[in-house]
Write a structure and sequence with these properties.
- The structure is a single chain.
- Helix content is 40%, strand content 21%.
- By secondary structure, the protein is α+β, with helices and mostly antiparallel strands.
- Strands 1, 2, 3, 4, 5, 6, 7, 8 and 9 form a nine-stranded mixed sheet that branches. A four-stranded antiparallel sheet has the order 12-13-18-17, with helices on one face. The protein has a three-stranded antiparallel sheet with strand order 14-15-16.
- Helix 6 packs antiparallel against helix 9.
């Protein structure tokens, strides 16, 4: 196998698909624009949802990119060899152009010719069929024709080899996943890539969106079929170089070396120290990208800001475990800016902001820990010596950021034993609630192309225009958006609360635009033309050579869609709440009636 570093692998991938007619598109923000039903961009497909639903992409039908992503669903797994909260996803796309033969063929060619992975080390899984849809014999036959041994092709059920739809309805279809045989012995005669025994490591996934699931649950063949593929950069680097963990790759090794220097400890020697180093390195990298995003996030108590705060404070808690000062996060963040600044210029441009926000949060967390210690002492006055309640230990964790180990250490000094089982139970209940909330957040929205969300999406454009006009501030920009079929939420930079008169005037301007029954028009043009036209947008490298500009009433804005056809479809716009989102950022929640 060919040994490559991260820069070489990114370049090899993009060059390969560019040579096969794919336009290289820039990464999108970590804050979703076209799939606002989730907090973060969690996969390469999120920024491309409108185009998978039928919108025309300005760069064409063949696309390739490296998309930055954040996933926090497995946050408690971070610290092992492979889980990361931030990662880069290599992807190539066909929007109604090529399909299975080309997609599988190019994947095989890239893996075997460019990365020089031996054919006998590869294994694949394909959809095994069920009562809704036949077995994907076509993909299996293509793999065989390329020389993959039949014994290395596995037919698996829908839970393993089917994607989508993202919402209740929408594009969906079978996928074929590509695995590396690690050489570990099989766990039994029935060992497949679906096993967790470690024999097979997934490195690539090709999704074939060939059906549209309607409201009745029926799968209808799509006229224009799409291909969506994803290969994790970190995981592929581990595979190619024979590393034991992602922390040995060039994406992390310098950060781990810095933590070794600061702590005087060695990564890999002691499990607790190793886990602490990995969590600090991972969470600080994610925080650096969120703070330095083109739609920068600030630590807060809601949504993306809350997750960011959790990551920063969790990293700071593990600094205590490792025996280093929490300003280690600033040192690591500066190293990450140096590492990634050339690939993602916004990280370098936002260096001062990143370091300043981390320092501010460090000070706030120190005060929280102080408050937590006072609360701990207060609790002890109400319980007899003996067992410290597990539920109370969890409350200290959830409210003040006390890791259970810290509570146990403090309790032990006072002659108490923490009810660890009670703590674990409370923690598990909290996780279930969080999981249910995350699943609820993913329902509806632009991911399923609903008309209600399309109308609300158009309303955000009118709201953005109205805010600039009423507040007489052309520097106002969107800082975040979340849309459900019931309401829109729009974050924007502004230093103070809006007055009642200003809120009423914003509503009036939006409703005047709606009442004028203006058609919603879309034009493709260069970024320079869009800028000259006065289009609203964060003019950065994330745009390609050609962009879509939507004109909705007096609003002119770069966007991917989808939208209503006419402002008259929007009904009456009403602001239900105006509040603070984070420092210098206001939040408006509104509905269409």
């Amino acid at each position: 196998m060919k040994k490559l570093d991260s820069t070489q692998l990114r370049k090899a991938y993009l060059d390969f698909f560019k040579a096969r007619g794919h336009a290289v598109i820039p990464t999108a923000s970590l804050i979703p624009e076209n799939d606002p039903t989730v907090l973060f961009t969690t996969a390469g497909m999120h920024p491309l949802v409108p185009y998978l639903l039928g919108e025309k992409h300005p760069a064409g039908k063949r696309l390739t990119d490296v998309q930055i992503c954040v996933r926090t669903g497995d946050i408690d797994e971070v610290g092992d060899a492979s889980h990361c909260t931030f990662f880069e996803m290599l992807g190539n796309w066909s929007l109604g152009d090529y399909f299975k033969k080309e997609s599988i063929g190019w994947s095989f060619e890239f893996l075997t010719d460019v990365l020089e992975i031996p054919v006998d080390r590869l294994a694949v899984s394909v959809f095994g069929g069920d009562e809704d849809c036949p077995r994907d014999d076509e993909s299996a036959q293509i793999w065989k024709s390329l020389g993959l041994p039949e014994k290395n092709i596995f037919f698996l059920p829908k839970k393993n080899n089917w994607w989508g739809p993202a919402g209740v309805t929408g594009p969906c279809g079978p996928d074929t996943e590509i695995f590396l045989d690690t050489g570990k012995p099989a766990c039994g005669e029935d060992c497949t890539p679906a096993c967790d025994c470690g024999k097979y490591l997934e490195i690539w996934n090709n999704v074939f969106m060939q059906y549209f699931k309607d409201a009745e649950g029926k799968l209808n063949p799509m006229e224009h079929k799409n291909v969506d593929t994803g290969m994790g950069l970190e995981r592929t680097l581990v595979t190619l170089n024979g590393y034991a963990s992602v922390y040995e790759t060039d994406l992390f090794d310098y950060a781990i070396a810095e933590l070794e220097k600061l702590s005087g400890k060695k990564h890999g020697e002691n499990e607790a120290d190793t886990v602490a180093m990995r969590i600090i390195a991972d969470h600080t990298r994610t925080a650096t990208f969120l703070l330095g995003d083109v739609k920068p996030v600030s630590p807060s108590n809601v949504d993306q800001g809350y997750v960011l705060r959790r990551l920063i404070r969790r990293a700071m808690r593990y600094c205590r475990t490792l025996g280093v000062e929490s300003d280690a996060l600033l040192a690591l963040a500066d190293l990450y800016v140096g590492k990634y600044g050339e690939v993602y210029p916004n990280i370098a441009e936002n260096r001062e902001r990143i370091l300043s926000e981390l320092e501010t949060e460090r000070g706030k967390f120190a005060k929280t820990i102080e408050q937590g210690l006072k609360e701990f002492d207060k609790i002890l006055t109400h319980i007899p010596v003996g067992t410290f309640p597990g539920k109370t230990a969890f409350r200290l964790y959830d409210t003040f950021g006390f890791p259970i180990e810290m509570t146990e250490e403090l309790a032990r000094e006072k002659g108490y034993t923490v009810d660890r089982a009670g703590y674990e139970k409370a923690f598990a209940e909290h996780q279930e609630k969080s999981k249910a909330g995350a699943e609820q957040k993913f329902k509806g929205g632009l991911a399923d192309g609903g008309e209600a969300t399309a109308r609300l999406h158009s309303a955000t454009h009118l709201l953005n225009f109205a805010l600039k006009k009423v507040l007489k501030d052309d520097g106002i920009m969107q800082r975040g958006s979340n849309i459900t079929p019931e309401r829109l939420r729009f974050d924007f930079n502004f230093p103070r609360p809006l007055t009642e008169a200003e809120i009423a005037e914003v509503e009036k301007v939006v409703n005047e635009q709606i009442a004028s029954a203006r058609p919603v028009t879309c034009e493709e043009m260069s970024v320079d033309e869009a800028r000259a036209r006065g289009a609203v947008g964060v003019f950065a490298d994330r745009y390609g050579d050609v962009v879509k500009v939507y004109t909705i009433g007096d609003s002119v804005e770069i966007c991917g869609g989808p939208h209503a056809a006419n402002t008259a479809e929007l009904g009456k716009f009403r602001i239900v709440k105006e509040q603070s989102s984070s420092a210098g950022v206001r939040r408006i929640k509104a509905v269409l009636e």
